[in-house]
Amino acid sequence: MLTSYMAYGTYKLIKEFETATGSYRNQIKYVIIACLVGSSGGMTTFLPVFNINVYPFRDTFFFL
Fold this sequence. Notes:
Elements: H1 2-19, H2 22-43, H3 58-61
């Protein structure tokens, strides 16, 4: 469910990006980039639950 919600949200942002102009377009671009980086780091948290041994990259994406 989490993956589908994140994918749908990113899809909606990309559709809005196509019609946006000016500084609003630039803001949407940065939000899309942040969503992709954040979700790629966060998704590695769920992989060990499914017995997929992957180094948890989440530590490199979260600064706090």
